[in-house]
Amino acid sequence: MCLWLALAAVGATGGGEPVPLAALQQMLGWSSCVERAETIDIGDGTNRLRFFPGMRRAELNGVAVWLNAVAEPAGTSLVNLAAADVERVLLPLFSQPSREPAPLRVMLDPGHGGEDGGASSSAPHLLEKELVLDLALRIGARLETAGMAVGYTRTNDTFLTLSERTALAGAWRADVFVSLHANTAGNRLASGRETYVMPLAGHPPTGAGTLSDRPRAGNGHDRHNTLLGYHIHRQIPGRRHSADRGLRRARFQVLRQAPCPAALIEVGFLSNGREAERLASGWYRARLADAVASGVLEYARHLAADAPGKATSPAPCPPADDVGGTEDGTEDGDEEVKETASDAP
Question: CA 125 to CA 143: how far, in whole Å?
């Protein structure tokens, strides 16, 4: 079945009826299904989609993708999937890209700055604000070479509020917003990269946090958020034996208020000595910059091949009163603190 027809069919249900695994296989035109003790794999010989019954974690070709809802065990049907996850997460990831990317205006957001140094490492001495600024400039140079228009929320050691960052993206009419960060945790063994996009309205974040039914501006781009986040995350290199923490979901303020498809990338843990050493090296920063730029360009190819009338970013939801929040960019009672959510190895 054509994926756009499948999307229309799922969308016509209003998102209320669960989708049996066999129905998803039919939409994708896949026949292979392998059931193991704790996982169920479907595929077509080229792609493999793995579900963990009773969990929100899934894996697409080995890349962890966190769903919005649990893959519910369903007896002979194996699992039932939320229609919203099928429509706005899974099916869009199997769209076919164009050979040439759509010309996009990409806003890069190096986190922190000025008096806000962000996370840090003592050996080697490294500040998050300096690391992500360097990465942003490297990524921007690669995207400009590829023909993208590139803007920055900051190009020097300047402090900006979270609201100012998304306002800049809106004023510049950005098509894509990519926020760059480095992680930290009390557990010094915590490692790996992770990428965040918005949860769907009415669904909880990946980590500990409360459910929010209120759509935000960022929810106006749900399908494209996932597509952008996935194609960036799958490109990011990882240290051997470090965790792929996956494409995750959080209501960080810059994602809630984003006027366009948006992703927030945590490139590694400065609290982990080995990862800090890699992040301090020029050769690894070059690899990271290549990876993020490649992910944005792959997203642009998929956008160029989008269905008629959808070749540009979708219109945002009417903005809600969404300027409140805690200093880490979360909203009181609505989202976990970023560092705490990543405290497990």
Answer: 29
* 191 and 272 both lie in a single domain: yes
Which DSSP state fits 189?
Answer: T
Residue 176: name the closest of 309, 313, 48, 32 by CA.
313
- Cis previous bond, 124, omega within 30: yes
Q: Which of 166, 226, 169 is nearest to 195 (CA)?
A: 226
Bridging pattern class, strands 19-20 and 262-269: unpaired
Look at the chain and report how many structural domains it folds into.
Answer: 2
Host H or E run for residue 319 = none
At residue 47, φ and ψ (nearest 5 deg) are -110, 150
Whether residues 121 and 47 share a domain: the answer is no
pTM of the model: 0.89
For β-strands 262-269 and 193-197, DSSP reports them as: antiparallel
Residues 132-135: contacts with CB under 8 Å, at least 24 apart: 132/180, 132/181, 132/182, 132/267, 133/157, 134/285, 135/110, 135/180, 135/267, 135/285, 135/288, 135/289, 135/292
Do residues 260 and 324 share a domain? Answer: yes
Q: Which residue from 96, 97, 82 is spatially nearest to 24, judged by alpha carbons? A: 82
- Regarding whether 59 and 117 lie in a shared domain, the answer is no
pLDDT (tens digit per residue) in 204-221: 999 766 677 789 999 999
d(CA 258, CA 255): 5
CB 76 within 8 A of CB 20: no
Domain containing residue 259: 105-341
Angle at 258 between CA 200 and CA 112, to 5 degrees: 115
CA dist., res. 217 & res. 239, Å (int): 35
Q: Which of 270, 251, 268, 118 is nearest to 196 (CA)?
A: 251
pLDDT in tens, 13-56: 445 799 999 999 999 999 999 999 999 999 999 999 999 999 99
